[in-house]
User: Which sequence fits this backbone?
C-alpha cells in the first residue's frame, strides 16, 4: 500500500520523520518495502499490508494504525486538499469556470435509478447514486495523489472513485447512466455463457457462479472485479451512476481467480471490505464530485442493505492475555490500544466485552484481540522466558540418525553431498520408471520441473555433467532424499555416482579408473554401516550398461541397484561416453527394514586358524558366488572364511575358462585343527568343485 | 736444501680444496692427490726428506709428518660430516606430495540442518521427518486455511497430476494413525503440515522440530528456488507463551550466529495468532544499515507465532487448556547469512568448487 505522506498527515499528526514512522510501523506489523521521495518535498511510503488486513489497504486505514502507534488522535474526515492545498482553490475555480451549463442543484431532479439485489448473499449491501457530470480531467492535486498511490488518472469521475478507494478503502465504480437499459441496476448471478467486454478490452464469458451487475437487459460489470466497456464513463457521458457496495469475499475471489483478473477492487473485496463503509464512501465521492466541480449529485442516495452484517462482539479476559503473552498488560494499555483502533470496550467479569468494528474482518476471536494488544503494546516489551521441560524427549527419528550416519560415512569415502530438486524433466525421468508410473506435476513452472523424480540419479548425473564442464574430472557425489512413483508413492532414497579415477592421482603409481567393484564396495559399506548384509546379483535395468549392473539384496529383499550407467543415458546428460559413470541407488525405507542393529559380542578365537589356497580352472561365466557357495556347503563348519584373491584369464588358460584362486581359512573354537582335518576338508571341497562346476585344480 | 715453503703451499692448497669438497668422491680425490703412496704430493715431500741435508732431515720430517696427520684427520672429519648429512637407508623425501585420502563434504544446507537439529536436541526437542507429498487438509485446511482462503495465495502450490500414496513417518514410535499420507495431491508448501499429523497422533506436551524439503511455484532467481528446505518448530503445552517463543529464539540465534540481537515483528500467518517475523542483526553491516538489510540493520530469518486456536480445534486439542508456539525457518536463509552466500542457486548447482569450501 503506497501512502503519500502529506495525505496521511491529513488524518493523523505523526510527530516523527518518514524514516521513524517507517521503523515504528514495521514494528506494528506493517513492514515498509520502500520509502521514495515524491514530487515537491513529499514522500511515498510503501507499506506491506498482510492478507488479513484489508482495512489497511487505504490511507485512512494506515492512518488509524499510525494514530494508535503514536497515541495521537485520528481525524476521520481528512481536511480536503480542495481547501487545504494552496493550489487547489485555483483548480477549483478553473473547473468551475470551465463548467458550461450548470446542472440543477442537488436533489432537484429524481434520481431515476432503480436498484434490485437478486443475490443478497453475494451482495449484502449496494449503495447507488446518480450524478450529472461534465467529464474532463480531474484536478492536478487529485491526479498527483493517485499517481503516488500507483494509479493512472483517467478522468474526473473515475479518478474520484479511485480517490475514495485509496483514501477510505471502498472500491467504487461509475456507470454511464445513459448506457444502463431501463435505468436499472440488477445485482444478479451471471447467465451461463453471458458475454461482457470488460474495461481492459477483453471479451469475457461469464458463468452462473459469478455475480454480475446488470441493467434491465444484460451484464454491465463483474461485481467487485471490473466494469464493462459498454457502460464506461466517456467524455460524452452526462449522467453517471455511482456504485459503492459490499460483495461477498469468497464470491469475488472465485470470480477473479476463474477469470484470471486481479484488480484493485477485487483485491480489497476478496480479502473483505467493510460492510459499514459504502454509504460513507458514497457521501465522500459525491462531495468530491461537487467540490472539484465535476458535477452534482441528483436525488437521493439509494442504500439497499438486505442482509445487515452485525458487529462481532467478543469477550476479552485478562487471564488469557497474560496466559498467551507471558506477561500481564496493564488495563489502561489494553483499553487505550483497542479504543484507538476503533474497538468499543465495556467492563465484564475478568476483563471486557469488546465490539469489533465491521472493517476488522480479521478479528473474530479473543486471541485476535490479544494480538492487537500485543502488537501495539510492543513485542519487545514482553518478558523473555524459556519453556519448561515437562516430559522426556522422545527418541530421535531413525531416519534422521541414518542420514547423518550415511553423510559421515560417504563424505569420508570421498563423496560430496549434493542437493537437487525433487522434480525433473520428463525425458530424464522416463528411463527410471515403468510406463505410466511417473508422477506429473499438474501445474509445473516449466518442462524442466515436469515430473516428480522417480530416482535421485537423473539429478545427480546432471550435477556430474555440471562439474565435468568445469574441469572436475573425478567426481563422487551422493544425495539422500525422497523419490516418487505412482505405484510406490514417496520413498526415501540414497544415490551415489562416481566417475573418473578410482583413487586420487599420485606420483608413486599409475591411476586406475573407477570400476564396478569400487561402486559395489560403496554399497557394501553402506549396508555394513546400517547393519544389513548386502549381496549383489546380476540384474538388468534399462538405464544401466548390460553386463555391468546388479541388484542389491539385503535380507532376501531387493533394496537397490548398482552398476555402470548406460551409454545412452550418459550421453543424454551431455557427458563424454568414453569415461564410465558408476551409480548406485538404495531404497532407505527398504534397507531400514532389512537392517538389524542389535550388537552382541562373540568371544575372541582362542585357537589358531589354518589357511589353504587353491587355484582352479572353471568356466568364465560361472558366478563367484556359486563357487563360494559350493565350497561352504562342502566344507565342515570349521571353514570360517573364503575369499577369492586372484582371477586370471589369458596366456595358458583355455579361452572360455578362468583361473580363480581362493583362500580358505579354517578355525575351531575348542581346539587347534590338525593337518589331517584340514586336508580332509580341502579334499571334499575340491571334489565338490569338480563335480558341480567341472573345476580343475591348477 | 729443502724448501720448507712447499709445506705451507701444500697446506694452503689442501685447505682450499677441502673447503670446496662436498662429496665422498671429492674426499677420495683429495686423499689421492695428497696422500697416495705413488703420486701423493705429501708422499713426494716425505721422499725428499731422505735427500735433504742431515741436519735438516729431522726437523723437516717432523713438519711433513705433521702435515700428513693434519690432512688425514681433516679428511676423516669431513668424511664424518658428509656422512652425517646423508639420509639413512630407507629414507624418503618427506616433502613429496602425500597420497590423498579422498574427502567429500556434507552439503552446506545439511550442515546448517544438522547444526540446528543439534541445538534443539539439546533443548529437549524431538526431531522428525515428514512426508513431502501431502493432501490439502494437512497442508492447508487444518492450518486454518479453508479452500479459497486468500492466504493460500501467499504460497503458490504445486499440485500432482495424479494422486499417489505418500510417505511414512514416525515408524519408530509404534502404531501412528497419521503415519501415512493416504492420498497425496500436492507438494507440501511448508513443513507445517506435520504439525497437524503430529498433534493428531500424540497428546501434548510437544517439543518438535521437523526439517525437510518444501515446494512452491517460484521461479529460480537470486533468492528463490521452487524447492527449498525448512525447519518447522512446534511447542505445545500448558502455559506456553509468546515470552517462551522469544526466549527460545534468542537461545537458538545465539548458538547459530553468535552474539547478535533478535527482534520480533508482528506479521500474519493463518495458523498462528499472534504472528511474528523474527529478525536478527544484519550480518553484513552489524546493524548499521546496508544494502543487504535494505538499510534497516535487520534481517528476517523466520516466521513464527502462537498456534491458532482453530488449529488446536482441528486436531482435537482443547484450545482453552493448551497454548503453543510454532515457527518455520528456511535453511537456505540461515546458510546464506552464516556463510555469506549471495545467490541461493549455488546450493542447488552443487559445484564441487563451492562445496569444498566448507570444512568436513
Assistant:
Amino acid at each position: 500500500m503506497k501512502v503519500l505522506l502529506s495525505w496521511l498527515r491529513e488524518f493523523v499528526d505523526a510527530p516523527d520523520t518518514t524514516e521513524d514512522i517507517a521503523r515504528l510501523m514495521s514494528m506494528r506489523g506493517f513492514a515498509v518495502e520502500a520509502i521514495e521521495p515524491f514530487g515537491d518535498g513529499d514522500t511515498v511510503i510503501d507499506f506491506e499490508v498482510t492478507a488479513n488486513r484489508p482495512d489497511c489497504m487505504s490511507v485512512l486505514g494506515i492512518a488509524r494504525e499510525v494514530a494508535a502507534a503514536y497515541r495521537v488522535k485520528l481525524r476521520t474526515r481528512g481536511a480536503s486538499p480542495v481547501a487545504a492545498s494552496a493550489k487547489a482553490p485555483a483548480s477549483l475555480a478553473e473547473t468551475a469556470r470551465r463548467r458550461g451549463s450548470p446542472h440543477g442543484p442537488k436533489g432537484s431532479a429524481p434520481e431515476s435509478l432503480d436498484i434490485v439485489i437478486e443475490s443478497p448473499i453475494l451482495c449484502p449491501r449496494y449503495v447507488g447514486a446518480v450524478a450529472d457530470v461534465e467529464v474532463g480531467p480531474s484536478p492536478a492535486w487529485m491526479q498527483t495523489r493517485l499517481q503516488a498511490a500507483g494509479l493512472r488518472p483517467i478522468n474526473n469521475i473515475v479518478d474520484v472513485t479511485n480517490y475514495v478507494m485509496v483514501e477510505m478503502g471502498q472500491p467504487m465504480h461509475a456507470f454511464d447512466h445513459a448506457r444502463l437499459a431501463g435505468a436499472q441496476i440488477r445485482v444478479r448471478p451471471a447467465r451461463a455463457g453471458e458475454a461482457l467486454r470488460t474495461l481492459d478490452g477483453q471479451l469475457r464469458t461469464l458463468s452462473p457462479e459469478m455475480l454480475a451487475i446488470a441493467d434491465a437487459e444484460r451484464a454491465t460489470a463483474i461485481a467487485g472485479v471490473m466494469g464493462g466497456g459498454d457502460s464506461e464513463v466517456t467524455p460524452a457521458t452526462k449522467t453517471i451512476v455511482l456504485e459503492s457496495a459490499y460483495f461477498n469475499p469468497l464470491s469475488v475471489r472465485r470470480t477473479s481467480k476463474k477469470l484470471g483478473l486481479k484488480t484493485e477492487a477485487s483485491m480489497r473485496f476478496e480479502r473483505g471490505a467493510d460492510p459499514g463503509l459504502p454509504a460513507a464512501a458514497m457521501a465522500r465521492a459525491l462531495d468530491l464530485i461537487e467540490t472539484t466541480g465535476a458535477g452534482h449529485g441528483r436525488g437521493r442516495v439509494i442504500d439497499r442493505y438486505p442482509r445487515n452484517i452485525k458487529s462481532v462482539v467478543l469477550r476479552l479476559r485478562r487471564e488469557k492475555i497474560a496466559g498467551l503473552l507471558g506477561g500481564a498488560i496493564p488495563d489502561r494499555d489494553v483499553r487505550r490500544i483497542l479504543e484507538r483502533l476503533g474497538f468499543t470496550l465495556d467492563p465484564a467479569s475478568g476483563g471486557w466485552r469488546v465490539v469489533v468494528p465491521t472493517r476488522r474482518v480479521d478479528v473474530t476471536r479473543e486471541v485476535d484481540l490479544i494480538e492487537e494488544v500485543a502488537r501495539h503494546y510492543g513485542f519487545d516489551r514482553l518478558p523473555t522466558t524459556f519453556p519448561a521441560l515437562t516430559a522426556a524427549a522422545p527418541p530421535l527419528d531413525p531416519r534422521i540418525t541414518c542420514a547423518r550416519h550415511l553423510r559421515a560415512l560417504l563424505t569420508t569415502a570421498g563423496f560430496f553431498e549434493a542437493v537437487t530438486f525433487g522434480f525433473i524433466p520428463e525425458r530424464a525421468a522416463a528411463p527410471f520408471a515403468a510406463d505410466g508410473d511417473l508422477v506429473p506435476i499438474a501445474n509445473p513452472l516449466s518442462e524442466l520441473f515436469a515430473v516428480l523424480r522417480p530416482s535421485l540419479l537423473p539429478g545427480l548425473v546432471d550435477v556430474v555433467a555440471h562439474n565435468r564442464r568445469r574441469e572436475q574430472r573425478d567426481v563422487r557425489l551422493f544425495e539422500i532424499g525422497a523419490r516418487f512413483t505412482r505405484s510406490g508413492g514417496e520413498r526415501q532414497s540414497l544415490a551415489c555416482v562416481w566417475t573418473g579415477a578410482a583413487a586420487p592421482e599420485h606420483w608413486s603409481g599409475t591411476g586406475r579408473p573407477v570400476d564396478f567393484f569400487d561402486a559395489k564396495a560403496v554399497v557394501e559399506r553402506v549396508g555394513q554401516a546400517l547393519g544389513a548384509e548386502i549381496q549383489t546379483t546380476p540384474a538388468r535395468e534399462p538405464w544401466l550398461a548390460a553386463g555391468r549392473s546388479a541388484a542389491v539384496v539385503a535380507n532376501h529383499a531387493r533394496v537397490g541397484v548398482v552398476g555402470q550407467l548406460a551409454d545412452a543415458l550418459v550421453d543424454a546428460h551431455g557427458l563424454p561416453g568414453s569415461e564410465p559413470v558408476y551409480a548406485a541407488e538404495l531404497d532407505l525405507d527398504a534397507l531400514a527394514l532389512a537392517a538389524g542393529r542389535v550388537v552382541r559380542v562373540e568371544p575372541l578365537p582362542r585357537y589358531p586358524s589354518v589357511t589353504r589356497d587353491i587355484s582352479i580352472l572353471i568356466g568364465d561365466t560361472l558366478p563367484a558366488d556359486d563357487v563360494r557357495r559350493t565350497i561352504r556347503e562342502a566344507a565342515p563348519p570349521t571353514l570360517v572364511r573364503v575369499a577369492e584373491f586372484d582371477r586370471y584369464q589369458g596366456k595358458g588358460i583355455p579361452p572360455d575358462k578362468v583361473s580363480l584362486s581362493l583362500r580358505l581359512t579354517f578355525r575351531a573354537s575348542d581346539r587347534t585343527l590338525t593337518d589331517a582335518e584340514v586336508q580332509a576338508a580341502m579334499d571334499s571341497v575340491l571334489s565338490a568343485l569338480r563335480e558341480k562346476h567341472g573345476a580343475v585344480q591348477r | 736444501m729443502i724448501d720448507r715453503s712447499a709445506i705451507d703451499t701444500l697446506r694452503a692448497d689442501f685447505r682450499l680444496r677441502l673447503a670446496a669438497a662436498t662429496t665422498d668422491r671429492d674426499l677420495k680425490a683429495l686423499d689421492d692427490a695428497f696422500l697416495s703412496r705413488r703420486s701423493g704430493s705429501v708422499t713426494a715431500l716425505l721422499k725428499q726428506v731422505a735427500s735433504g741435508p742431515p741436519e735438516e732431515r729431522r726437523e723437516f720430517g717432523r713438519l711433513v709428518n705433521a702435515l700428513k696427520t693434519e690432512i688425514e684427520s681433516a679428511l676423516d672429519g669431513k668424511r664424518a660430516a658428509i656422512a652425517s648429512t646423508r639420509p639413512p637407508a630407507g629414507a624418503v623425501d618427506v616433502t613429496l606430495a602425500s597420497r590423498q585420502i579422498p574427502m567429500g563434504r556434507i552439503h552446506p544446507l545439511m550442515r546448517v540442518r544438522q547444526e540446528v537439529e543439534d541445538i534443539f536436541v539439546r533443548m529437549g526437542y524431538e526431531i522428525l521427518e515428514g512426508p513431502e507429498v501431502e493432501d490439502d487438509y494437512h497442508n492447508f485446511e487444518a492450518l486454518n486455511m479453508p479452500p479459497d482462503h486468500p492466504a493460500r495465495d501467499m504460497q503458490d502450490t504445486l499440485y500432482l497430476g495424479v494422486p499417489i500414496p505418500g510417505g511414512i513417518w514416525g515408524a519408530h514410535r509404534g502404531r501412528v494413525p497419521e503415519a501415512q499420507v493416504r492420498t497425496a495431491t500436492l507438494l507440501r508448501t511448508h513443513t507445517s503440515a506435520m504439525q497437524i499429523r503430529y498433534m493428531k497422533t500424540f497428546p501434548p506436551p510437544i517439543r518438535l522440530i521437523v526439517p525437510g524439503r518444501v515446494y512452491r511455484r517460484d521461479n529460480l532467481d537470486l533468492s528463490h528456488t521452487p524447492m527449498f528446505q525448512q525447519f518447522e518448530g512446534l511447542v505445545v503445552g500448558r502455559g506456553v507463551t509468546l515470552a517462551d517463543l522469544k526466549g527460545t529464539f534468542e537461545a537458538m540465534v545465539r548458538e547459530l550466529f553468535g552474539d547478535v540481537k533478535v527482534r520480533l515483528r508482528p506479521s500474519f500467518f493463518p495458523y498462528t495468532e499472534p504472528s511474528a517475523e523474527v529478525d536478527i542483526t544484519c550480518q553484513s553491516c552489524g546493524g548499521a544499515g546496508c544494502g543487504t538489510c535494505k538499510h534497516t540493520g535487520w534481517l528476517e530469518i523466520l516466521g513464527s507465532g502462537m498456534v491458532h486456536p482453530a488449529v488446536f480445534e482441528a486436531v482435537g486439542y482443547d484450545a482453552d487448556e493448551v497454548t503453543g508456539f510454532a515457527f518455520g525457518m528456511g535453511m537456505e536463509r540461515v546458510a546464506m547469512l552464516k556463510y555469506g552466500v549471495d545467490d541461493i542457486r549455488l546450493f542447488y548447482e552443487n559445484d564441487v568448487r563451492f562445496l569444498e569450501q566448507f570444512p568436513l
About this structure: The domain at 2-79 of chain A is CATH 3.30.56.10 (Phenylalanyl-tRNA Synthetase; Chain B, domain 1). Chain A touches chain B through 100 residues (CB under 8 Å). Chain A has five domains: 2-79, 84-304, 312-381, 398-594, 610-697. The first helix of chain A runs from residue 5 to 9.
